[in-house]
Every structure is written in structure tokens, then in C-alpha cells.
Amino acid sequence: MDSTSSGESLLPSVEQKMYFQFALQNEKIENLITYLQTGSFVVGLTRNQQTVIKRQASLYTWDSMKQVLYYLGSRDGKKKVVIRDPDQLTRVFHLYHGNGTGGHSGWRGTYEKISQRYFWHGIKEDIRHYVARCKRCQRFTPFKTMAREVKPIKVKSPLEMTGMSLIEKDETATKDTHDEEDK
Ligand SMILES: [Zn+2]
């Protein structure tokens, strides 16, 4: 759980914080998985915790072959791989924000790309924080940010959005990842 396999120190210090959240989340997730697998609760859970797990169970499904937990509650109706391993999170960030096809797009673009396939609690906030702290984004200010800074007008929409979504579409189209399977 603590292995630092990737040599690149792209990830900002916020990563530590996310790892911590992951650790907390992980216990709950493991309890949920146990319930999905066996139909019974981990010993020692309170009534309350059991109720929560029961309620959550309808939103998740466990693939015992792949050892992957899927989230079914997304608005777009697609099932999402639940990220529950910090290393997996790191890879996802590298792939969808960093060197892979990420191209260091803004947090919204990064979020859209990642959330098409993955889910975890606090995903939006984590991505927003992550992108805001990304060392490379800070060093090489992307054109989108520069454009926003140069223009004194508060354009938050049509052009900017179109530009972003075009780029994102392109990047996602070229990338078909099976990240969750490479264990
Ligand atoms: Zn970046």
C-alpha cells in the first residue's frame, strides 16, 4: 500500500492527504465488499454502520473474477470502477491529467475524463485539489488559464467550454485503458 513505484514526482503534497482519505475510505469499502461477497457483515459493526452498508450495497456490484468494485449510482447510468488503491489513483492521475493523455488539462476536463470511468467518494474535490496543486500546471501555465488571465472579461462559457470539451473528447477517444486490470 505504501509502494512508490512511479519515479516521477508529479504528484503534489496533496497526494498524501488523499492517501489518508483513501485509507479511511478503504475500511468502509472493504466492509461493503465483504457484505457484497458474503451477504453478511464484518464482525464489530454497529447497527448504524450495517444500515449504511445495506443501503450502499444496492449502488455497488462486486466482480470477484476481476476483483473490481463497480459503482452503479452515476447519473449517466454507466458503471464505474471504484478506485480503492492509492497506487491505482496515482496511475489514474498520471493517465488522465499527467503524461498519458491528460495533457494537464484543467480540473473540470480532468474530472470529466476520470469520472467517465472511475468513482470514489470526494472524486470532484480530490481532482480539483490535485490539479490546483499540480507542479507542472503551475510551472507551465496552460493556454486556457493564460487566456483567462489575459482577458479581463469573465467569460466562463461558450468558447472556453467548447475548446475544453473538444480537447477532452480527442484525448479520451485515443485512450482505451484497462487500468484496473493490470494487477
Ligand atoms: Zn498538471
Automatic annotation (TrEMBL):
Q: Where is the Integrase zinc-binding domain?
A: 88-140
What's the domain of life for this entry? Eukaryota
Question: Which InterPro entries does the UniProt record give?
Answer: Gypsy_RT_Integrase-like, Integrase_H2C2
User: Which Gene3D superfamilies does this entry report, sorted A to Z?
Assistant: 1.10.340.70
Q: What is this protein called?
A: Integrase zinc-binding domain-containing protein
